[in-house]
Design a protein that fits this description.
The structure holds 2 protein chains of 2 kinds. By secondary structure, chain A is α+β, with helices and mostly antiparallel strands. Chain A contains 15 helices and 8 strands. Chain A folds into 3 domains: about 1-30; about 40-165 and about 380-385, putative nitroreductase (tm1586), domain 2 (NADH Oxidase), CATH 3.40.109; about 165-370, NADH Oxidase (3-Layer(aba) Sandwich). In chain A, a hairpin with a 3-residue loop joins strand 1 and strand 2 (about 85-90). By secondary structure, chain B is mainly α. Chain B has 2 domains: about 1-135; about 140-235. Chain B is about 75% helix and about 0% strand. In chain B, helix 1 (about 15-45) runs antiparallel to helix 3. Classes of the chains: A alpha+beta, B mainly alpha.
Amino acid sequence: MVSRRSWLRSAGVAGATAVVLATGVLSYRVFDTAVLDPEGGNAYDPWRTWRSVGGPLGTVAAAILAANPHNTQPWFFHVTDSAIDVYADSARRIGTVDVAGREHHVGLGCAIENLVIAARAKGFVPTVTLLPSGSASDVVDHVAHVALAAGPAERSPLYEAIGSRHSNRGPYRATPVAAGVLSELVDTTGLSGVDIHWITDETAKAALGQLMLDAAHAVVNDQQQSIDGFAWFRSNDDAIQQHRDGLTLDEQGLSPLMLTAGKLLPASTRSAGDTFWVDQTRNVHIRTAAAYGVVTVADSADVETQLTGGRLLQRLHLTASSRGVALQHMNQITERIDREQATGAPATFAPRFAELLPAGVRPLVAFRVGYPARAARPSPRRALAAVTR
Amino acid sequence: MNITTTPTTTTTNTAGTGQRNAGAKIAISGALVGVLAGLVQATVGSRIPTWSGAKASPRALGILTVILSVLAGVAARVLQRTDRRSTSRLMATASIGVVALVCFTTVGRLWYVPGLLLLVGGVLTVDSWRSAGSIVRQHWLRILLASLGLFELLMAASASPLRFVIGACGGIALVASSWVVGDRRAVAAVLMAIGTIPFAVVAWTAIVPLLLLIVVGGLAIALLRTSTRHAPA
């Protein structure tokens, strides 16, 4: 017969074994998701090395750090001593999430703006020609030709902000962003046909916030949009280092302990990811937004306008970063507008969004701003060699 | 849960000794190839991602692989000596086996050959599986402690440089403490503290290093109390 003492001893050893095994599983998750070095590895090198790359290639090193949809980095560049040609990589689109390609082209516009700012800092005078091969659908992938002439090196605050600009998806402080600061963020010099409309009034903010939440629900309830969006989520460090693109848990603006907990748990499923995004939209993004901004245009389907809107957006984001103002891109409304248009569904989001904007303009992309509660983290980036031809 | 380390004499026959020596030689070969694999990972790992597993920190993982391969080699050398106790031999064999398995996560395909050599060599060095099972049961808590050291090494492998150094040293200290806890309790206690507290301080946000500290603390109480109870007067 087993004595009580012996039974207790066996139970203790079994318990200790179970706890050690659990520690082993969690240790593997720490290893697998790089909890102890989230910005390590080659995937984050472009953020550390972009300043040190000289000549025309140095402008591309800055361009690849630009904002872009779902961190798809839908670009490649042809580099010569006197010019940079920017091409769209149509294989890196996000399917039904951006069915009309507006975010795709806005992201390319962001890269062009970074390239131009870096060119001036590196002693070039850049001259941008958008869609140099024309706007026909078969040549639209050649989105810009940037001629580089010799000139004085001019390092602007925007150039200095290139390496610290990140989309901040975390909570913002309750401090409002003054109207004067908002207006100083907008500089449309040399960019025609695009503008920024700020939404700061509490009633209008609440209406736009509700519209964003409704759009987020609609995106996750649209199975194909949900699938296409989730395809760009990288759930472990191996995937991040291998692909060097896409969205990661580190960029979601979570507190350190919440981020660790998220990484230690099993990799998120698509439905869990959808639920997380909707919850974050409701409880963090909308609730803590100090103001919303909308890039407005006359024709949101025009590719040249989309590229120009991207340049304005990037310029604004860099200015915001240089002044300590956080920004998060929030495009679920326009994603639903384009999706409804593409599928022939009744337009439910376009009219509601139009009510919040001045007459005669259309929304291109939207974002929120505020003073951040915590710093944003960088996203993985592909190497220069992978995006230059 | 008796963890006294009364020397157990070995009565293996010549055939068994021959098999063990052959196993040790194979394991040493595996360790040498493992060192090479670690050096390749540390130097050119990022340029051959298909072979090296496309790791985030190839240099750190390469260095870790070299350290672990050296440990496996030392363990294999221990097995070549005939004056070792059964317990020591089994610990050495276990070390070889654990290194063989852990390094499949550190250098990708580069570990296929050394990993296989270490596993085969490790298996051949076991004289008697029945006796091995008995020793494992007898020293189960020490094995758990050594396992925690290896888990710490695993966490350190993908950590930033400072955390890597502290975690690697801590992991090795924990493994070492599991070897000495039966004979030198004070040294073991110090090694356990060195193995857990600094890593918990620099990596507390990862939560698991704190858990590791608590679990090692629990094991330490059990192991040191038992050692005290069985210490000679």
